[in-house]
């Protein structure tokens, strides 16, 4: 009887009628769960806003902040996140930096340097 594991012992507390198979919860990508980290999404949106400000207003510091936000968004993204959107935000921020320096190759002087200088 030691080698036979096919029969159920009388001291086994498990009940076969109460067993249920595990089913993974269905995730809705549109509605975030309460414990989900929204940092990549927020930094992605901030990166796009700063990229547009850098491109349209020719503000170099906006372009650099956009690149910083895009790097944070990329670093914090999950495998199942939309990679096209993150990559497009990253490329938009790089183009904002490049275009702002092509239009004006002088070193950047941030607007707050006159306050502390």
| Count of DSSP strands | 0
Number of helices: 4
- What shape does the CA trace take? elongated
The poorly predicted ranges are none
Q: Mind summarizing the main beta sheet?
A: none
Mean pLDDT comes to 83
State which percent range the strand residues make up. under 5%
Structural class: mainly alpha
Rg for CA atoms: 27 Å
Instruction: Give the terminus-to-terminus CA distance.
Output: 88 Å
Fraction of residues in H or I helices: 40-55%
SSE string, helix = H, strand = E?
HHHH
Give structural notes.
The chain crosses the membrane at residues 45-74, 86-103. InterPro entries: ASTER. It comes from Frankliniella fusca. Keywords: Membrane, Transmembrane, Transmembrane helix. GO terms for molecular function: protein folding chaperone. The chain is 52% helix and 0% strand. It has 117 residues and is mostly helical. α1 (39-57) runs antiparallel to α2 (60-76), α1 (39-57) packs parallel to α3 (83-103) and α2 packs antiparallel against α3. It is elongated.
